[in-house]
Amino acid sequence: MLTNLKERKEEKCYQYWPEKGCWMYGNVRVAMEDATVLVDYTIRKFCIQYQGSDGPRAPRLVTQLHFTSWPDFGVPFTPIGMLKFLKKVKRSIHPTAGVGRTGTFIVIDSMIDMMHMDQRVDVFGFVSRIREQRCQLIQTDMQYSFIYQALLEYYLYGDTELDVCSLEGHLQRLHNTRAPHDRLGLEEEFRKLTNVRIMKENMRTGNLPANMKKNRVLQIIPYDFNRVILSVKRGQEFTDYINASFIDGYRQKDYFIATQGPLSHTVEDFWRMVWEWRCHSIVTLTELKEREQEKCFQYWPSEGSATFGDYTVELTGDTLCETFTLKDMVLTYRPEKQSQHVRHFHFHGWPEIGIPAEGRGMIDIIAAVQRQQQQSGNRPIIVHCSAGAGRTGTFIALSTILERVKAEGLLDVFQTVKSLRMQRPHMVQTVEQYDFCYRVVQDFVDIYSDYANFK
């Protein structure tokens, strides 16, 4: 299924399945068995049974794969999610009228098959043939262009998805195989990420003269299409900007906020973001000073409370864990005298240049943050290092990858990092950080393989 039930306030498809429990459609009983919601698509499983006057027939299990990131008369932002979805389903697809999006999906699928069999593609010829069978398959030039974009993505990078059982062997190949120009396989894989173009034309807001001083590093500025927007202060222009980007998670869009370490003059903006977006979890991956340079202004009180503009932050708990410090704070918006709880996770032992000595600490802090999220309603998780890219991107990549490993036993480090870089520049900055993603996943699998169905 390639359409949402409603798009632009118009019904595109009647909901023909029960949200929970079971419904009767004439003589057919449909029962919801399971639903898995992911960031780009949802997988539902139904048990259907014909119950006619001559008695019930044997029940059948039906799986529905519902792609949810395809706008009507548009195309997905990136082919990554579509190619992942393509692996899940090969038949029984239907959007609204069964033309534009259905045709696009069929062409991409068929051309990938042709690429494998004939080492060529013929998009124009194939589209011409299927439009003779059903008119208006491929409705817009955007859909036609998206076909080439998806095929180019597949041709350049192939299928980089791994089963956890093959991860160890893949890591050995990455570290032992020499690519052209005498690069290790790992270095070559990371080099391909440089193909992700930094879209400077989409950084206009962060580059406005009034906002430049709010950026810690001028090379890392949020894109306009997914920047975090603050409310405008009355009578003050340009007060809706903060150097922060919404980032998709494994199951949920805008699950993370990637941001820089606050500057002394942007601390109130930081707490305003926490308040306005109702965030309950903050992850800090940098020390306040590293190599004698300030990397993050201390935006929380060491004891008692501190006031930043309209916001007061009170420290109510401070717990030292093995690799991170856990602080409980109460954030109060003074004009309305309203408060909310915030939990602050401060990871120690990650140098600005380099990676943590081992991966267990990262696994532990990710698990602690996810437990907090389950209790606090899954509002966006704020993650920052100094510039909000290298360590921040690595943490978000690992959170996303490990969640998929637990759910599916699959991982795709390359496409996960590539997707992050399309949402914020320079996410996962170094080949060491990229390698760390692989190694932490391997550590996770080694630790928990006795308790989960990985191997």
Automatic annotation (TrEMBL):
<dbReference type="InterPro" id="IPR050348">
    <property type="entry name" value="Protein-Tyr_Phosphatase"/>
</dbReference>
<feature type="domain" description="Tyrosine specific protein phosphatases">
    <location>
        <begin position="360"/>
        <end position="435"/>
    </location>
</feature>
<dbReference type="Pfam" id="PF00102">
    <property type="entry name" value="Y_phosphatase"/>
</dbReference>
<dbReference type="InterPro" id="IPR003595">
    <property type="entry name" value="Tyr_Pase_cat"/>
</dbReference>
<dbReference type="InterPro" id="IPR000387">
    <property type="entry name" value="Tyr_Pase_dom"/>
</dbReference>
<protein>
    <recommendedName>
        <fullName>protein-tyrosine-phosphatase</fullName>
        <ecNumber>3.1.3.48</ecNumber>
    </recommendedName>
</protein>
<feature type="domain" description="Tyrosine-protein phosphatase">
    <location>
        <begin position="186"/>
        <end position="444"/>
    </location>
</feature>
<dbReference type="InterPro" id="IPR029021">
    <property type="entry name" value="Prot-tyrosine_phosphatase-like"/>
</dbReference>
<feature type="domain" description="Tyrosine-protein phosphatase">
    <location>
        <begin position="1"/>
        <end position="154"/>
    </location>
</feature>
<keyword id="KW-0904">Protein phosphatase</keyword>
<dbReference type="InterPro" id="IPR016130">
    <property type="entry name" value="Tyr_Pase_AS"/>
</dbReference>
<feature type="domain" description="Tyrosine specific protein phosphatases">
    <location>
        <begin position="93"/>
        <end position="145"/>
    </location>
</feature>
<dbReference type="GO" id="GO:0004725">
    <property type="term" value="F:protein tyrosine phosphatase activity"/>
</dbReference>
<keyword id="KW-0378">Hydrolase</keyword>
<dbReference type="InterPro" id="IPR000242">
    <property type="entry name" value="PTP_cat"/>
</dbReference>
